[in-house]
Each structure stands twice: as C-alpha cells, then as structure tokens.
TrEMBL record:
GO MF annotation terms: zinc ion binding
Sections of the chain in a coiled coil: none
Keyword Amino-acid biosynthesis among UniProt keywords: no
Domain MATH: 34-176
Top-rank lineage group of the source organism: Eukaryota
Keyword Zinc: yes
SUPFAM superfamilies linked: RING/U-box, TRAF domain-like
The protein's name: Unnamed protein product
Length: 619
C-alpha cells in the first residue's frame, strides 16, 4: 500500500502507475530482469545447511546489484526463520561511493508459478523502501511465501530443470529500475515568449533528467553544464548566484501551478539528496516524476526584478538579497495589438521579524499595489494613472476585479507567485468599456475550450487519449494525478474523462459535511482553515454550535449571493467557480473587520461576472 497524499482523498494506491507507463515508452537501458533458480529446493535436508543463495551481479548504468535469497528465512528474524522464504535486493558497489551517497530504485520480487502465472507471488517496493544508502544497502521482504506452500508440488511453484526429473527448482525473479526526476526548466526568456494565460507552456520548455537521488549541487551543476549560454560555466559561486524555484500546486487549496518554493539550504546540506528534503513527492514532484523549476541567475541583466534600479545602480546587496518570492507582471498591449506580454517580476520581501502574533499588521509576504504600478510605469513609459491592474485567476474566472493604485496591501491580498495583468486605460470616451478592453484576455480561455471541443469532435480520425486529456487539463491548472483518478472512475475512457472534467467538478476535494467528492457547483472554503470545504448544498443548510462558525458560513452565503447572481449553473464547458475568502485569513478577532474584508473581496470579483458568465455558456 502506498501512503495517501495529505489532502488528496482520491490519491489511490496506483498513483505511481503513470510513472511505470511512461517508463514502458522509454529505452530499457535502466531496467533489468534477474532470475535466480534454486535447485533442490524441495529437498528439506539438502537445504537445511544453506544459509543464503547469492545471485550473479547485474549492472544498471553505474550501479551493481545482486539478490540475496534465504531459502530457510532470514536467520536474523526469529519469527521468520525456518518458516518462510526471504528475498532482498542488494546494492554491491559500496566502496566506490561518496560518503553521503543515495540510490533510488523501484523493484519487484517474484516467485514464479509454473501452473498458473496469475498465482505467482509478488512483492513491490514502495516510496518508503526504495532508498539505498550507506546505512542500508539492501531492501526486500522477510516473507515472500511460506516454505510449506512453496515446497508443495501441487501448488505449482516447483519446476524441473530436465525432462523426467521431479520438480525441485524454485525460480525467484526481480525487476529493477533506477528512478529519475525529469526537471522541466523554465528561464526568463521562456516567460517572455509566452503570450497566453499562466506563466509558461511546459510542453515547450527544455528538460533535464537526473537521478532521483540528485542533490542541489548536482542540479545546479547540471543546469550550468546543459545551459551555459543562459547561466554560464559552473563555478562554486554559482551556488549563491543561481536560484532555483520549484513550481508546486498545493493540493488542499486548489491553487495554480506557480514557482512558490526556493530550493535553498545551508552549505553543509547542498550535497544532500533533494528528494525527501527540499522536494516533496506528490506536491513538488508529480506522479510521472516530473518537477517544474524556474531558474534565475542574479548576474544576468534580463533576470533582474522590475523593482531594482536600472543598470549599475543596482548594488550587490540588492542582487544577493533573497526575496520571499516574486509577483509576475504582464501587460495587455493596447489595441490594435491587444497581445499579452510578459514584462518582468517584482520582489516580495521576506519578513524581518519572526513574530507569529496573529494581530501583527506586518505586510510580509504581500506587496503594495502602488509598488507594482510604479515599477511597471518605470519600465513601460506609461504613467501610473494610465494603468489598471488585475490579478490573473484560474479558469473560468481569468481575472480579479480592478486593483487600484491606492488599494491597501491587505485589501489587494497579492501573494508570492501571483500573476498580475496591467492594461492601459482608454483615453477617448468612445473607446470600449473595461470589459471590452479585457476581451482579448478572456479570448485566451476560449481557446482552451476550443481545444476541448476538438477532442469531442466525433469526426476525429483518432479518439482522444489520456495523454491528450492530461495535456489540456494541465493548461487549465488541473493536476495530472487528478485526471488519472477521474480516468479510473470513468472506466479508463478518455472521452468520458474529458466530459467528467469539463462538467466543472472540483476534482479531489471532499465536502467536510456530507463527504461527497468531485462535486459540481460552488465550493465554499473556510476563511481561517484552508482545509475545510463545503459543497453548495451543505453550505446552504450548515448549522454550527458556535456563533463564530455560524458567522463565517453566513458570510460565505453573503458572498455566494453577490458572486453567483450572474453565473448560470455549470455546463460541460467549464470548471465551476472556485470561491475563496482569502482576504479573511488575516486573523483579526473583530468580526466586523472580517465581514468588511469578505464583502470587499466579493465586490472585487463581481466586476468580472459578465466574462465569467460567458465562460459558463461556451458549450
């Protein structure tokens, strides 16, 4: 059994299946099948003196493995000795490895059955037993089968090596594959070449494959080696100059895939494997062992944030200071161009205090709208009063309401890894309304829906595959493992899976009241506890014992009235509106302040209702 990913109730035990299916399409140079034939296994007296059978050594890449088979059970495990068959995969090249080495491999151990292959005994490694290191160079299973069953000729596990002989040979096999991580590498120039929603189309960026056990030093060295024209040659100081941000997608909140986590550690930890340390499986690394990273080099001029002074005015301290994150900035060019252009990024400064007081008014982790307006004005030539700013949201909302120059930091609620879109205010009274100015941005979402229509086309010569659906879902910020879970619920029918997704289901979320999963309609999220969700039906009839929760749910209903009044019920064209009262999470004890913040957030979103309703009527 594989461990369930926290916050993902539909993360079934086959979630790594996608990785194995991907491997089947690759070269097999990193995979090995090994077979150990134990002769005279049925002879109890002959085998009584045999402690261990060691297979021939086999090589995968630069790694050497063998199998240890204990025909009388592991002698160091009293409860198994003399009762079962114990089998272990052993890494043998220990003397050639550095002090902090780590090798990750997935493997299966099997006892073949000559009568019925479906009855063969199997044991598969999982996420907790695939790491080989200096303190543990072997993994396996204490009990692969009872000796009484394996030695019974009627069971079919014994075979004959020569015709006419009694069956006395037991065949133990192993399948081993080294694990690797495929990094999809995003540079600043990739962001500049992207003119669509989101930050980048991951299908177009460069890839870098490294062993699963690679360290931060290994990663940065490999990046410099493969991309010297962008990062330059690798030197030791590159560890401080090259920053690597990991894209992740919090499974609880349902946020978009953005570069939120800086991969950084103390110098003494730079040779420690990333996996299980800086990279979390299932959050930073997906079910296909893909990890998306944004790489910046503070010595490169075109990588510098917009809020830094121009040219040589930027000091070394400015360049070396590590921010908490970035807000990424786009500009919608005025008509007739009307193209979405990436402008740059603005730093979100880290907090200078460690205070955890919920009453603290510190703006750490947030950015004042005025700072963004001024940074964009300096780099584009437009005046601040000629610009208007919106936050890019996930489909089908697309954009938040207008965030004015004088909005407070708390009201705007800009967070690290947010994307903001600037438009140029029309000068002529006869120009289109604000909604008309933003039409080119909403048209980009319609292009995604057009892709879905093409997959539904009955005249397609080739029916859509799971890969087609996953690729489209990724563009709509739906994690691939959610799609795979839906694929199984739809009996592995890709077209039914696409329809299931486009019905507007909140994939992977569970109503904490009725327990319903993958529900449609509005989803209500607690303003304080981000892991508490309600479907629309439960939110409408929720009754709580405390006045505080009743007030929160009441505010949620108020916002639902404001937002849902122009949105029609979900149709197969779009994911339904994801409601969140994030501005209420500032943890003030004053309920009036909470109510004001929630209403303000709702009013900002209501301004985009016309476009949201259009999204809901596409198909």
């Amino acid at each position: 059994m594989l461990p369930q990913l926290p916050g993902a109730p539909d993360y079934d035990v086959s979630w790594r299946r996608g990785e194995f299916e991907l491997w089947e399409r690759e070269l097999t140079s990193w995979c090995w099948d090994d077979v150990v034939a134990g002769e005279a296994f049925s002879d109890v007296e002959a085998m009584a003196s045999v402690d261990k059978v060691v297979s021939d050594t086999f090589t995968i890449g630069t790694h050497r493995f063998c199998l240890w088979v204990f025909p009388n059970g592991n002698p160091n495990e009293a409860q198994y000795k003399g009762r079962v068959l114990s089998v272990y995969l052993v890494l043998t090249d220990l003397s050639r490895r550095p002090p902090d080495w780590l090798t990750c491999a997935v493997f299966s151990l099997q006892v073949e059955n000559a009568l019925d292959s479906r009855r063969r005994l199997e044991w598969h490694s999982c996420l907790t037993d695939n790491k080989f290191h200096k303190h543990l160079n072997n993994w396996g299973v204490h009990s692969l089968g009872s000796l009484s069953m394996l030695r019974d000729p009627q069971q079919g596990f014994l075979t004959s090596i020569a015709e006419g002989q009694e069956p006395d040979t037991l065949t133990v096999s192993a399948q081993v594959r080294l694990m690797s991580i495929t990094f999809r590498v995003v540079f600043e120039h990739d962001l500049r070449e992207h003119h669509h929603l989101g930050l980048v189309d991951f299908s177009t960026v460069a890839q870098l494959k490294l062993p699963f056990c690679c360290s931060l030093r290994d990663l940065i060295a490999a990046l410099h080696e493969q991309f010297p024209e962008v990062l330059g040659d690798y030197r030791e100081e590159a560890m401080d100059q090259t920053r690597v941000w990991c894209f992740n997608q919090p499974v609880v909140s349902g946020q978009a895939l953005r570069p939120r986590k800086l991969l950084a550690c103390e110098k003494s930890q730079r040779d420690r494997p990333l996996f299980g340390h800086l990279l979390c499986d299932g959050v930073d690394i997906d079910a296909y062992s893909f990890c998306q990273i944004y790489v910046e080099n503070n010595s490169a001029t075109n990588d510098r944030p917009l809020d830094l002074p121009f040219g040589d005015l930027a000091t070394a301290k400015d360049l070396l200071t590590t921010p908490e994150g970035y807000v990424f900035v786009k500009l919608l060019q005025p008509a007739p161009g009307s193209r979405l252009e990436y402008v740059g990024k603005v730093r979100v400064e880290a907090s200078s205090t460690d205070s955890l007081d919920m009453e603290d008014d510190s703006d750490s982790g947030q950015l004042a709208p005025s700072a963004l307006y001024e940074a964009v004005a300096r780099h584009t030539g437009w005046r601040c009063d000629e610009l208007e700013m919106f936050r890019e949201e996930i489909a089908p909302t697309v954009l938040s309401g207008l965030i004015p120059y004088h909005s407070s930091t708390k009201c705007a609620g800009l967070q690290p890894a947010d994307i903001v879109v600037f438009t140029v205010r029309p000068h002529i009274p006869a120009t289109p309304s604000l909604a008309g100015v933003l039409d080119p941005v909403f048209a980009l979402l319609f292009e995604r829906y057009a892709e879905a229509r093409q997959l539904f086309d009955p005249d397609r010569l080739v029916p859509p595959t799971l890969e087609h659906v996953e690729t489209l879902a990724e563009k709509l910020d739906i994690p691939k493992f959610r799609v795979r879970s839906a694929f199984r619920k739809c009996h592995e029918d890709a077209l039914a899976t696409l329809r299931y997704i486009m019905e507007g289901r909140h994939l992977g979320f569970i109503c904490d009241s009725c327990g319903k999963t993958d529900f449609t309609g509005a989803r209500f999220n607690c303003a304080v506890c981000s892991d508490y969700d309600l479907c629309a039906a439960c939110n409408g009839k929720q009754s709580c014992t405390t006045w505080f929760l009743v007030s929160l749910m009441s505010l949620a209903n108020l916002n639902a009235v404001l937002i849902m009044k122009t949105i029609k019920p979900c149709t197969p064209c779009a994911r339904c509106y994801r409601f969140s009262m994030n501005t209420m999470a500032s943890a003030s004890d004053n309920m009036q302040q909470r109510a004001a913040a929630a209403i303000t957030a709702a009013e900002l979103r209501v301004q985009g209702d016309e476009q949201i309703a259009r999204c809901a009527n596409l198909m």
